[in-house]
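Researcher: I'm preparing a figure for a lab meeting and need a structural model of a single chain. I don't have an experimental structure, so a prediction will have to do for now. The sequence is pasted below. Please return the structure as tokens so I can convert it later.
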Amino acid sequence: MRPKRHTIAYVNNSDLLGRRFNGYDFQDHLANNGYDVEFFCFEKKSESCNVHPMMPWKYAPKIKGAIERLETTFSIQSLIYPFPITLAIQSKFNNVDIAHFQMIHNSFFSLQFLPSFSKRRPSVWTLHDPWALTGHCIHPYSCTKWHSGCHGCPNLDSPKQIKIDTAAILWSIKKDVVQRSDLTIHVLSNWMKEMVDSSPIMKGKKVRIIPIGVDMERFRPDRNIRREFRKSLGIPDESFVIMLRTSTNPFKGLEIAKKLLSKMRPKRQIFILTIDTKNLIENNMENIRIIDQGFVDDSLLIPSYQASDMFLMPSTAESFGVMAVEAMACGCPVICVKDTAVEETIRGCKSYLSIDPQHLEIIAEQIDDLSENFSYLFEMSQKVRDFSVKEYDKKVHMRSLVDLYDSLLE
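Model: Understood. Here is the structure written out token by token.
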């Protein structure tokens, strides 16, 4: 007798944005393991018949914008969006066996729907950041008030910003919603699990750690692509190249990167290959040339990793660090900030550099030395590739995810 197939509903703000970790790219693997996927989102960009827009109407973006402005005015977050109502009346959603909620705090979903949705079927909520644990912050940094109710928020401007101090109210609402919901919490790192375990909002919830996996066949070293991509950018084959994401997001640590570069004293020209926002670093440092690529898709992202000798990821607040794993899969060692989730993610490989923001001159000198030591860089490259394949292969990630779903249906 043929085994019964089950259906999973993924709920996210978008289908293609973040597709490598929001469920969209999981469909083929899950199908081979007895699970069909129905994907529900506010912003549909693909042509897939398995993706269902929650508001397939012409004026939906305007309605969303108006509600977003209303929430901003009253300093509330993810409380009054009506769009999940459309899930409740869709048979495709009502008939699924498991619901998996992803980035549901991106201005389209109201938390009050979680209890009713989660009581009808086994449900998972992936926490891509600590927002669910705080009053309003995506990352609380050194603030510990999320342990006890977020009373008297010291930083209203921390994303997601609020105009008036409603942090304690929002914290209480989240606690009420989560405690009334039947949820398994999925986190990407032990760093996030420790936060969840110490959060009163998540008290009593089952927590599973399943790191994000990377397709090791796509993200891999390739000397030919490295050479040709460098040539297309005017970078000599023997040059030392550091890849950097230049983002205006304060969590991404651009100011740390700028200060670090200003302290470097390379003996010969090195190249900083950037992605994301252009013109955020002045191209006037001695022996350092900036090449801005702007926003890139995978057709440029992967060759950028492959063409680089190191990947500088100075993020101060991440819950995992998928770009660090992608870089290592391409044989590109990582420079990260110490005592962060990114360092935890890559620590096992031991072939990385750790930044102390208070002593940038130390890491600057180490980078200068490495830029002259290509044999050691090659050794590091091999080690980080081997580590990423062992720890973060997408196949391992998918096996763990299937095991989670199987356990929910037992």
